[in-house]
Amino acid sequence: LAAECLATMPFETDKAVAFIDEYSKYLEFQSDLEILAKPPPGYLSNAVDLRSGLQAIRTAAARGDYSNQFQFDSDISDLINSANDGHLNFQLCSMSIFQFAAHDLLVVSISPDGVATPQLYTIEDARSYASGATNISPIAFINGFGAASVLESQARRQWLQDPDAQYNMAVSNLNINGQGEVGSNAFALDSAWRGVDSYKFQFANQTSKDYKVVAAMSTKFNFNYTSGKDLYNAVCGQTAPASPAPSTTPSPSQSAAAVRRSAASTTPAPSSYPSPIMREDHNLIVGYYPTEHGLEDVAVLGVPTFQPTTEAEIYNFAVLAQYFVGNATKDGKTKIIVDLQSNGGGLVNSGMALYSVFFPNETLYSATRMRSHDALDFIGTIFNAIAGNANGTRNPVMDTSGLLIDSIVMPDQESTYNSWSGFYGPYLRGGIPSTAIAAESKFADEANPATDPINTDGLGGELDFKTPPFAPENIVILTDGRCTSTCSLFTDRMISKGVRTVAMGGRPHPGAMQAVGGVKGSQALELSDIDKAAQLARSALNQSIAAGAPILSNVSQARFQEVMPIPLKNFPLPLSTGGLNYRNTYTKNDTDIPTQFIYEPASCHLFYTAQTIDDPSVTWSLAANATWGSGTCVGGINSDTGSLGSQTNNEAGSTDSSSNTDSVSPGSHEALGLLLAL
């Protein structure tokens, strides 16, 4: 009934075509459009040409091929989601009305010992298996197709670029993550309607069970509409998008001590985990001393996020990390596991602060590039003209844009650029027209303030380690592949020092798995931030023209009007939320190919067991035994069975160029969705 309701929404061709034209201007700020269309060998997600794909949908819309708004929105959403980039996202008007899911259907992937090939079970059966039951049966088929292949297909639209990480999104092995949050579910991941109203599970013992897909209505709507037209007018007829989420950047003028949260606002410690030795009030960072045999000299630092949201949390995150690590060494712990399972990233400075706890007193390396295009050039030219004018007024939007030459520093944290044109280029790198390389931030200028401590000088302050507390070979980073954004930056820095990684779970195949399977871009940018920068540049340009001293030439002014994004509030169809990846990340060894497109296997790959479902600390024992004990790995760069030479069995080196976006049939998302869901 809900799907039928959505199908009655009208479709206005002119608005749809204009929407694509205007969104395409924002999409130009996506950092990797060219290489995403033609990725290098080793990239495991599909190639996708977003610009050609949008134009194909535009052509179909102009022909009048779409019969309703939901059909159109679904095709655009599927295209954007196919980039598998957690920073690239939006929500279109008709996609926010209903969510279609089988919420009570939790599936787990279980290996008997962490090394043998896992099988799929319902979570109830897996718990029985963990308790010693012998009469349970694995799931063999879902809607007549192999169960594992169905889950792989279900997860393919997700925001992770690695198929093993995607698979971990589909299963519920990490039932409670390190922040105490309930884990994921394959049959609630993709909330769009895919033409499937139920899932038939067939088990290896020939029994079966059916699960219904249910439509849940968004709580932001009072559903009293009597027709598809009424629904369309209420949801898609509004010209103003919803207000963007408030910035998570705290005010630097606030005292960290003054804004620390009281004990009354704390979050309970994550259930299913052991009692922590130390934890931040909201489980942003948690320290454990495992008591299992063989782990007597091992400490565990759980870091489920790098996303503190207040100045107090930023301060506490860094200081508590050093406090725990320092105490662990005093208490005789000689090894440490940094548990990053399900870490979705956060603030770059928090990631760098944690890195500086383990490796203090050194220059923090980071290397990024933005994609060069006309709109970025115009904004950068105008902002730098204003900043370089003694009479100009410097706006906070300019400071946060990353485009002011006096705020840009090279990866060595010392060298700078003399002009905007010298920085902008464009320079062709990895097939992408790009800016020159730049550090993420001037970390040396931010060394160890009380509000945002990072130990780059070893001179004391909030973080005061002068030497590394653990040898690199005694540090292990534990992930489930769902490590994104700042998590990837932190992990890359740690690996560069010789730290090893263990990746858990993934598809039921032998061989290596990537420790970082999420977006590796260094900066997510909200569409609202681009909006602010574009409108500020437009206003400044108009003022300069009115004053008789135009910043741009007449030819450039005409081009400016063609390429500059219009305000989101003026969009022909509402765009409630949205963002993209603004900067690509690079390593010291390769400043041409973004890390997003470089295959990097973990040191060791292990599978989850039945015991890990309700006792995630079992993963620590598995990782420790495989790294420092007598345990073995399924694969990995430190494993005979998972050496890079055997990666062809796990799809490394393959690219899928079959993603043809030259033509689009309206409603093709439904046929594709049916195939994937089945």
Structure description:
This is Tail specific protease domain-containing protein. Residues 240-276, 641-668 are annotated as: Disordered. GO terms for molecular function: serine-type peptidase activity. Residues 103-221 form the CPAF-like PDZ domain. With 678 residues, this protein is α+β, with helices and mostly antiparallel strands. The protein is 30% helix and 13% strand. The protein has 20 helices and 21 strands. It has a 7-stranded mixed beta sheet, with helices on both faces. Strands 1, 14, 19 and 20 form a 4-stranded antiparallel beta sheet that branches. Strands 6-5-7-8 form a 4-stranded antiparallel beta sheet. Strand 10 (278-279) and strand 11 (286-288) form a beta hairpin. Helix 4 (50-62) runs antiparallel to helix 5. It starts with a helix and ends with a helix. Mean pLDDT is 86; it is low at 239-264 and 640-678.
List the helices and strands and how they pair.
Elements: H1 2-7, H2 13-27, H3 33-37, H4 50-62, H5 69-81, E1 89-92, E2 98-101, E3 107-110, E4 119-122, H6 123-130, E5 139-142, E6 145-146, H7 147-155, H8 163-170, H9 186-189, E7 198-203, E8 208-212, E9 214-217, H10 228-235, E10 278-279, E11 286-288, E12 298-302, H11 311-330, E13 335-339, H12 348-358, E14 368-370, H13 374-387, H14 396-400, H15 420-424, E15 427-429, E16 432-434, E17 475-479, H16 486-496, E18 500-504, E19 523-526, H17 527-546, H18 554-563, E20 575-585, E21 604-606, H19 618-628, H20 668-677
Parallel strand pairs: 12-13, 13-17, 17-18, 18-21
Antiparallel strand pairs: 1-20, 2-9, 3-4, 5-6, 5-7, 7-8, 10-11, 11-12, 14-20, 15-16, 19-20
